Amino acid sequence: MNERDHTNDDVSDEHQRAIDTLAAVSAHQHRARRAARTPWWIYLATFVLIVGVGAANDVVDISATTLIAGAILVALVVVLATTFARKDTSSLLGRWRGVQPRQQFVPWVFGVMLVVFGAVMWWLTHDDVAPSIASAVDLSAYPNTVAGVLYGLVFTALLGLSRLLTAVAMRGSAR
Fold this sequence. Notes:
The chain has helices at 3-36, 40-59, 62-86, 92-97, 107-126, 129-136, 143-174. The protein is 83% helix and 0% strand.
């Protein structure tokens, strides 16, 4: 075996190690992206909570509604207090799951979401969509429940859209 064959073997081994390392890094990045995704149950929980609040307005009196609003307000204050006390910008859900993706404010995503949210909410509140749908499906006695379902669908779709647009923005900035 001459010196030239020995050099080619070294280059070939080095090339194979580089390929293996690149494959390992790629697999790790794929696993990290999958772990950082919002789980499906967050979308379900968002929908169910919003529908529950809407339905509660149909079946409980005003003092119970005030109690529900107070409980939601307390939960928001606790989340904000823990976030600011820790001086941590990662999400509470991310900390629970042990995955803390880099969070970045993307102005154009915020603008798109603000416009879409404003347009959809204006349409839902000004065109009496919920009462019309409630009477069409013979649920006129439960207009708040129907409104809760509509708002649940809208907010869940907006949550998904914001995650999608943020992912697109992050992929575009990574290039």
